[in-house]
Write a structure and sequence with these properties.
single chain, about 200 residues, alpha/beta, seven-stranded mixed β-sheet, 7 helices
């Protein structure tokens, strides 16, 4: 089964600008991508990077280049793909192969792992004609679309698949629970501290 991994290295993770330089933000998303690809390699999936620009150093992974926003880029490959097919976003710093196997195992027509705040971090579709729309509460929209196409739906409740890395507080989770390249990147630059309100946050080392 092909699993597409959308990736855009151009000015990524702007909400992490208070913690990371422009160059570090690019390095961080490459580290996250590496974690996702390595986790996929340990499953039966065939990962394909769906990138907005040509990239090097992916260890021979197939890459599809489409210089367009996320929704039309994903829909372009879904139109050509034979189900079953999956999409897993590239910015999952806590991803593991076990978490992905939980996503791949169910036999429903549409299996989805939500992100926090209503997004869609990963899905598998076994039905033809499914298309994405990543705006707003895409998790709910994708479930509705799948059901309109006649699919049974399974939702995967996974901390590791729901945790992306968009906000400064997400770096806390990477330091606490990460195991791969993104965690190594974060531990080289940050340490956990307790602020004046006794909440855990990070500061540069």
């Amino acid at each position: 089964m092909k699993v597409y991994v959308p990736f855009s290295p151009e000015n990524p993770k702007t909400r992490l600008s208070s913690l990371l330089t422009d160059e570090e933000r690019v390095e961080f998303v490459y580290a996250c991508l590496g974690d996702v690809l390595e986790a996929l390699e340990k499953t039966d999936a065939e990962p394909v990077v769906l990138s907005t620009e040509p990239i090097d150093g992916l260890g021979g992974h197939e890459t599809v280049v489409r210089d367009e926003p996320l929704t039309p880029a994903v829909n372009a490959v879904l139109r050509k793909a034979e189900p079953p097919v999956g999409v897993v976003v590239a910015d999952l710093p806590l991803v593991t192969s076990d978490a992905l196997r939980r996503l791949f195992a169910p036999e429903e027509g549409f299996v989805v792992a939500p992100g926090r705040g209503g997004g869609t971090n990963a899905f598998i579709t076994r039905i033809s004609g499914f298309r994405v729309d990543y705006h707003g509460t895409s998790f709910l929209d994708h479930i509705e679309k799948a059901r309109e196409l006649g699919a049974d739906v399974r939702v995967i409740d996974s901390f590791r698949l729901s945790t992306d890395a968009d906000e400064p507080e997400d770096i806390v989770e990477v330091l606490l629970h990460g195991e791969g390249h993104a965690a190594e990147f974060a531990r080289e630059r940050f340490e956990l501290i307790e602020d004046e309100k006794e909440r855990v946050t990070v500061e540069r080392v």
